[in-house]
Structures are given as C-alpha cells and as structure tokens.
Design a protein that fits this description.
The structure is a single chain. By secondary structure, this protein is mostly beta strands. It is built from no helices and 11 strands. The strands form 2 sheets. Strands 2, 4, 5, 6, 9, 10 and 11 form a 7-stranded mixed beta sheet that branches. A hairpin with a 6-residue loop joins β5 and β6. The chain starts with a strand and ends with a strand.
Length: about 120
C-alpha cells in the first residue's frame, strides 16, 4: 500500500522551531518531487515548499522564505521541513505530497499521493 506519513508536529511557542518529517512506505521517494502544504481553519490549502526528486531544486512560499528549509534523504525515504522562527500564523495542518512533475510544484494539483497531515500550533 502506497502511503505518506507526516510526523513532528506539535505545540510550540512563537519563535520556536519544529522539524516535520514525511516518510514513504510501499514506494520509494527517489523519483518523486515532494511538496509541503498547509491548511489553517477556514482557509484554503496553500503550498509551503517543494523539492525536486534529486534535491537540487527547491521552492518556498514568500511567507516562509528564510525561516523554513526543505530537504530530503532518499536513503531514508524521507523528506523534512525544518521550521524556525515560527509565528502564530504558521498554525495549520501540514501535509506532504508526492508528484511526478516539479514545474508549478507549489500547486496541489501537481501531486498524486498525500499524507494524512500533522498539526502544528504556534501559541504562547
């Protein structure tokens, strides 16, 4: 069964850090571009960051540039999202997704497989 599983979410104070992981089972991530998306209550799902299958290309939403870093370890079949200097407006459910095409990788329609999401709450 093809599956993506996110982990690492939780409650953190403003200015804190979290590292999200996206692990694949049932298939290898080597050939897939990976995107991170988030959805806050009452808002549409938005692209946060994406990384090409080789890891050589990345993209970030303006709202997270300089604070978030996406990376991948294909040997561990895992993609990470390091989130620093977290703000209350980063509060959302974060999802990872796998897709075959890197072009327009911040669009959710580019992805074929999705994880179930992990909650990130930034609050004092």
């Amino acid at each position: 069964q093809l599956q993506l599983v996110e982990s690492g979410g939780g409650l953190v104070q403003p200015g804190g850090s979290l590292r999200l992981s996206c692990a694949a089972s049932g298939f290898t991530l080597d050939y897939y571009n990976i995107g991170w998306f988030r959805q806050a209550p009452g808002k549409e799902r938005e692209g946060v960051s994406c990384i090409s299958s080789s890891g050589g290309s990345t993209n970030y939403a303006d709202s997270v540039k300089g604070r978030f870093t996406i990376s991948r370890d294909n040997a561990k079949n895992t993609v990470y999202l390091q989130m620093n200097s977290l703000k209350p407006e980063d509060t959302a459910v974060y999802y990872c997704a796998a897709g075959a095409l890197f072009r327009l990788c911040m669009l959710s329609t580019r992805y074929d497989f999705w994880g179930q999401g992990t909650q990130v709450t930034v609050s004092s």
